[in-house]
Prior knowledge:
mainly alpha
Amino acid sequence: MENLHKLFEGKIDLFPINQCVGFFLIRNHFRQQLRDTGNSPHPLSVKEHYFLVSKEVSGAQELINSFNTGLRLYKEKDASRRVTRCFKKINRAVSNEG
């Protein structure tokens, strides 16, 4: 929120933030600036995340297999729907401001 305040006060010109989170915060806290706010189409960074389990944990491999199965199902069924829903909300919010 601090960086959004700075952005709209003209103290900074840009800052990195997750696109959906940024537009959510703007829509809910800085609605009047929504139409004047944009984003780069190129991500600043793409991070990989890892799930680590100690080999000393009983059933570690089964836990990893179960996690990987759940993650695969999430990606197949839910992730694209959630991303699409996020961008639909962004577009709707921006178009409603005009």
